[in-house]
Write a structure and sequence with these properties.
Length: 348
């Protein structure tokens, strides 16, 4: 068989390229996340900061027969005779010792023994009057605690938790510390991705102040703006050094378009940042049909070129006559003049 002609090679190259493009277009996309807007997916990439994204009251989902919360409060004619603080809040400068109390209430009918420890950045600065406390039945005990701000602490906000553990269950009491001095509000939005009807991104607090970010979303396609959500507050408080991955639903994503998503985040104190990502939406069924048509046409082109090349270059079988051999020919020979015949033995 003769080697492929340059035209056939080009056709095969185009066929291979089209097949590769089809496979890329048909690659499965990651499943879009269903759920409410701005769902927090992951947390805490910061240096020793384990505070939750949303500061919740200390009595959230604790045991039914005992509680732990910040002690103190005062009379409030609207809220009742005793007001509970949702978290421990302290203010001080580097090198100072700050004091507060933790209230452990045993509403059960047997004595309760709990162990206390600090967790997170600010939790590591806490010392307790007693690490283990036994509370009689139907009694509340208040445990003094002292938080010493390190001399080299960076001004701004720090967070942590006090953990009370009875051996079976634990309660976490949030702690927030405001460290005196100049603060820096810095925020970045990173790793923006588009997956079907979901926009994924990450927020990182690059400063030393607690941030309450706001997010604005804009999506532009080939023929104009597809989505324009004005800035709105996100339901989280971002501690210094903390990274949170989030999602933004986009239920009206197009079926066929090339889009650019732009995210803009801001926070009090002048923190702001922007990031963008691009994606191409291609409907699967039309893409498959069009690709098959293109592949079929290229295959016919390559097959026709190969057959023509084979007919021109194939050897003829032995004994076959060419068209020239089958045509009649006329042979022209020179005329020879002969003289009179001379008889042998003629008499002179």
């Amino acid at each position: 068989m003769s080697p492929p002609t340059p035209r056939l090679r080009r056709a095969l190259l185009v066929l291979t390229t089209a097949l590769a493009a089809l496979l890329c277009a048909l690659a499965p996309l990651p499943a879009a996340a269903d759920g409410p807007a701005d769902t927090a997916l992951a947390a805490d990439d910061g240096p020793g900061d384990t505070a939750p994204a949303d500061i919740a009251p200390a009595t959230g989902d604790g045991p039914a027969d005992w509680t732990a919360r910040p002690a103190g409060g005062g009379a409030d004619r609207d809220a009742g005779p005793y007001v509970h603080r949702p978290y421990v809040y302290l203010e001080g400068t580097p090198g100072t010792a700050l004091q507060d109390r933790l209230a452990v209430t045993n509403s059960g009918r047997a004595p309760l023994t709990v162990r206390l420890r600090g967790d997170g950045r600010a939790g590591a600065w806490i010392g307790f009057a007693a690490d283990t406390v036994t509370v009689p039945a139907r009694t509340r005990a208040e445990v003094p605690l002292a938080l010493t701000v390190p001399p080299d602490a960076v001004p701004g906000d720090a967070s942590g938790e006090v953990v009370a553990d009875d051996g079976d269950e634990e309660i976490r009491v949030p702690i927030r510390v405001r460290i005196g001095g100049p603060t820096l509000a810095a925020l970045t939005v990173e790793d923006v991705e588009i997956s079907g009807g979901t926009i994924r991104y990450a927020l990182v607090n690059r400063g030393n102040a607690m941030l309450e970010p706001r997010l604005a979303v804009r999506v532009d396609g080939m023929f104009g703006t597809l989505l324009d959500r004005p800035a709105r507050p996100l339901p989280l408080e971002l501690a210094p050094g903390r990274r949170v991955e989030r999602t933004e639903p986009w239920p009206d994503a197009p079926a066929l378009d090339a889009v650019t998503v732009r995210l803009r985040v801001t926070a009090p104190g002048g923190a702001r940042d922007e990031a963008e990502a691009s994606a191409t939406y291609i409907p699967v069924a039309p893409a498959v049909g069009g690709a098959l048509l293109v592949l079929g046409g290229l295959a016919l082109l390559g097959s026709g070129a190969y057959r023509r090349r084979t007919r021109r270059g194939a050897p003829e079988p032995p004994g076959a006559e060419s068209a020239d051999d089958r045509q009649p020919t006329t042979e022209t020979r020179p005329l020879v003049k002969t003289g009179p015949l001379v008889k042998a033995g003629a008499e002179s």
